[in-house]
Amino acid sequence: MMNTLVISTSSFDIDHNSPLQQLIQKGFRIVTNPHRRKLTEDEIIELLRGEAVGLIAGIEPLTERVFQATPTLKVVSRCGAGLDSVDLNAAQDHGVAVLNTPEAPAQAVAELTMGLMLSLLRQINQIDQAVRKGEWPRLQGRLLAAQTVGIIGIGHIGRRVARLCQAFEAKVIAHDPFATQVPQGVTLMPLEKLLGSADIITLHLPYTPQTHHLLDRKAFASLKSEAIIINAARGGLIDECALAEALNSGRVSAAALDTFEQEPYQGELSTCSNITLTSHVGSLARESRQRMEIEAAENLLQGLMRVGAIK
Hints:
Layout: E1 4-7, H1 18-25, E2 29-32, H2 41-48, E3 52-57, H3 64-69, E4 75-78, H4 88-93, E5 97-99, H5 106-121, H6 124-132, E6 148-152, H7 156-167, E7 171-175, E8 187-188, H8 191-197, E9 200-203, H9 217-221, E10 227-231, H10 240-249, E11 252-257, E12 275-277, H11 286-306
Helix pairs in contact: 1-11, 5-7
């Protein structure tokens, strides 16, 4: 029974994935996600059925209970960068290796961030909606070149966003207590100072209990006027109720979110006119997705070889 591999991401191209094809040739059976959405704890337990040896994981909760229920599990390979959905201590206690693909989605998330930034500055969504209604608005936008962009988290994705913003001639400042190297021309500063200095604030850091609601009422109260907020990282980083208040009161002039605390999202931000909402599509650029899936499968293959699950 020990030759089952589970792929829990909502979509995955098995046919064009060479490491996965190698695993199939070695006699492994692949079980995929029948729900085609993020799984609950019970659903992932059901899918693993206590006998899977490897998992290519999406963003479902991999908790102590999940590892307890699947004693055969040896390797979890996250298709993506974030590990906030995995209880790493529980994984270690149960002898499960956890791997991820931090580089693969970085360019895609950085480019989506730029798209959202430009769209908000030039009010592309609002103008599009108005033109469809037969209006011809002459809305005045803002230049990215004239803004100070504050990047919170200057890792794989944040560094790319910094370089792209610099190409647009924007000034870039950053906050990251763990930064080891910073792109040339980027000024590191404490969070409070960044919040008061940036015209655009974009989040590119992992979600942890420490970063929960990093942007809350207090943070929104300290922003420059007409500030813009972008989050293509993780949902829990922003207090969504506080953001809705800040958007409605004009404390925040516009926002764009690709990630939410509860997904699919159905909350009060949907009623705000000055926000762009996307459905967690940050890494869903064809070329990045392909690379991410191949890296995740390669990690799984290597991991299974290391634990001796492949003869």
